[in-house]
Amino acid sequence: MKTGIHPAYGYVVYRDRSADYAFLTRSTATSGKTVEWSDGNTYPVLDVDISSGSHPFWTGKQRLLDTAGRVEKFRAKYARARGAK
Predict the structure, then answer these.
(1) Distances from the Cα of 76 to the Cαs of 29, 68, 82, 84, 85, in angstroms?
(2) Measured over all CA atoms, what is the biggest interatomic distance in the chain, rounded to whole angstroms?
(3) 23 — phi, psi (to 5°)?
(4) Which are the contacts of 41, defined by CB distance < 8 A and separation ≥ 6?
(5) Which residue positions in the chain have pLDDT lower than 50?
(6) What's the pLDDT score for residue 58?
(7) How many whole angstroms separate alpha carbon 49 and alpha carbon 35?
(8) pLDDT on residue 62
(9) SS3 11
(10) Are 9 and 26 in contact (CB under 8 A)?
C-alpha cells in the first residue's frame, strides 16, 4: 500500500440513543465527540439513527400499519381510473 493516501483506521463507538445500544468497532469514520468505554479508554463516538438494537428486523418488533386504510385508498384510486374510461 502507498503511504499517506489512506484514511486513519482506528477504534470508534457507534451509539444508538433510541435503543440505548452502543458497540465498539474499527472504522475510518471520525467524530469530534468522545465517550469513555467500559475498558477505561476514550474513543470517538458516532450517533446513528438505527442499529441492530432498534431495527425491527433484528428486534422482532414490527410496527403495525393501517392496512385497511391503505387498501381502501388503493381501491378508491383505481375505481376513479376505471370509471373515467
Answers:
(1) 48, 12, 10, 13, 15
(2) 71
(3) -145, 150
(4) 11
(5) none
(6) 56
(7) 18
(8) 64
(9) strand
(10) yes
3-state SS assignment for residue 17: coil
Is residue 62 classed exposed, middle or buried when 0-12, 13-18 and 19+ CB atoms within 10 A define those classes? exposed
- What's the CA gap between 12 and 48, in Å, rounded? 12
CA distance 56 to 45: 23
CB contact at 8 A, 18 and 54: yes
The grid coordinates listed for 85 are 374510461
Integer distance in angstroms from the first to the last C-alpha of the chain? 66
